[in-house]
Amino acid sequence: MIFKKLHIALLLPALMIVGCTTQKTAPQATKPVRQGNVQVTQTITVKPVVRPTVVTPAPKPSYSSFSDWKSDFSMRAVAAGKNPNDIQRLLASANLNQQVISLDSTQPEFSKMSWDYADSAVSGGRVSTGQRKFNEQRSYLSGLESRYGVPAEIIASIWGMESSFGAVTGNSYIPSSLASLAYDGRRQKFAEDQLLALAELLQRGDISWSQLDGSWAGGMGETQFIPDTWLKYGVDGDYNGHRNPWATADALASTANYLNSSGWTRGLAPFYEATIPTSFDYSLVGTKQSAARWASLGIDTMDDVNLDANTPMELWLPAGKDGPVLLLSPNFDVIKVYNNSSSYALGVSLLGKALNGQTGLRKSWPRYERPLSTVQVTNLQRRLTSAGYDTKGADGIIGTNTRLAFQRWQADNGQTPDGFISERSGSSLTGW
Questions:
Q1: Would you report the helix, strand and coil content of the chain in percent, each value rounded to 5?
Q2: What's the CA dihedral at 353, 356, 358, 360 to 10 degrees?
Q3: Alpha helices in 205-329, H assignment, sequence order
Q4: 323: how many CB neighbours lie within 10 A of its CB?
């Protein structure tokens, strides 16, 4: 079968591709149609996805001291209309935190394999705690699902991933963290914007001066919103007149609102586990095709699935040809708006399944594969680029550009072009 009893609906006016801002025509009724063994039954409208914005960093301003930065920032903040007393109080409470600056600039020694994230996401302790907390909040989460369209288990799983269901919200003083990053971090303008948003939240009374401990990167509360995002998407979930990220009801409602506003589509799972036919063009791995196109290429889902024929789906092999095969829906990208990492989105998705009592991935991970060190990744990037497979830089991080370049190199050098980078697959490129 093309998909395992997959039901695909064909629309006369085609749905717009993810990311398009043009208003879509409402789907029209159609007669049942078959494409091979694919039954036409149900229509799912795909909303545009708000993708994470990639910003080219501006040249870093230089200050002779932390105090000089404070003075300059204070003048600019007041000139922008912020309350002088609030800015003065905020900066007076902020101290330079060298540990935060170090954390911002430090890279891990080794890149993680996808199963490391997956294992952490669905660890026994997290799942058992999560199921208890999920049951406690089930009624409230179901109400959020009805209102925003985001499944209760997805909201709860983000809660679990971000703060262990409210137990760990961070112990770094947020004004000091953001001020330190604004003074000497990788993204100074970003950190300054968060400080300004934090000042507005304090002025508005949504958060209190006595409750400002969070992550070293400025994440606040039980679902770890940064200040600017909370300003835009924070919801008063407990109807007490304030939007407080440390209040469970507010945090969960805001998470649902954020995902909905970012393009969440009702009825779509973040991913569907699938199988690949023996004869398959692996150069298509990592590309987005319509559900109907993947079906025509012999991709089978392991479960019965209802999809619209025009739903854009990405084929992802997180561990290469020997690991799980995943068809990613637009909702997978929506989760990445929260944290722009495919491994994070996979972790959220798998934890959601576990909280709902569902099984995880059926295909085993190739745990014999070993990750590359940061130095090895850098060498691989340099060698690929010098050989004509441009990785767009050599930063020691395996990102989309590096995977695509490696995939092209694989195709030209006798490897299955699945884009999976490990000690084994990249051995001829990692030495220098």
A1: 45, 10, 50
A2: 20
A3: 227-233, 248-261, 291-296
A4: 21
* Cβ atoms of 291 and 26 closer than 8 Å: no
Alpha-carbon distance 250 to 236, whole Å? 5
Give the pair of three-digit tokens for residue 148: 């925003």
pTM: 0.85
Tokens 């606040």, residue?
220
Reduced to 3 states (helix: H, G, I; strand: E, B; else coil), residue 101 is helix
Buried b (16+ CB within 10 A) or exposed e, 30-64: eeeeeeeebbbeebbbbbbbbeeeeeeeeeeeebe
Spatial distance between the Cα atoms of 426 and 306, rounded to a whole number of angstroms: 38
Most distant pair of Cα atoms in the chain: their distance:
71
Can you give the residue ranges of every domain in the chain? 7-50+264-338, 70-108+168-261, 370-432
Helices (H), 80-187: 84-92, 98-105, 114-121, 124-136, 138-148, 152-163, 174-184
Residue whose token pair is 């020997």 = 322
β-pair partners for 9:
308
Options 3.40.50.410, 1.10.530.10, 1.10.8.350, 3.40.50.720; CATH for 70-108+168-261 is 1.10.8.350
Phi-psi map region of 295: left, alpha, beta (phi>0 left; psi -120 to 50 alpha):
alpha
CB 289 within 8 A of CB 328: no
Output DSSP code: residue 208.
-
Concatenate the DSSP letters of all residues of 39-66 into one string.
EP----PPPPP-PPP--PPPPPP--SSH
Please give the single-letter amino acid code of residue 358.
Q
Which 3 state secondary structure label does DSSP give 273? Answer: strand
One-letter identity of residue 58: A
- For 6, phi then psi, to 5°, come to -75, 135
Please state, in angstroms and rounded to a whole number, the distance separating the CA atoms of residues 180 and 192: 10
pLDDT (tens digit, 0 to 9) for every residue of the chain, 432 residues total? 345 555 554 433 333 333 333 343 344 433 333 333 343 344 445 555 555 555 455 566 678 899 999 999 999 999 988 999 999 999 999 999 999 999 998 877 777 899 999 999 999 999 999 999 999 999 999 999 999 999 999 999 999 999 999 999 999 999 999 999 999 999 999 999 999 999 999 999 999 999 999 999 999 999 999 999 999 999 999 999 999 999 999 999 999 999 999 999 999 999 999 999 999 999 999 999 999 999 999 999 999 888 899 999 999 999 999 999 999 999 999 999 999 999 999 999 999 999 999 999 999 999 999 999 999 999 999 999 999 999 999 999 998 899 999 999 999 999 999 999 999 999 999 876
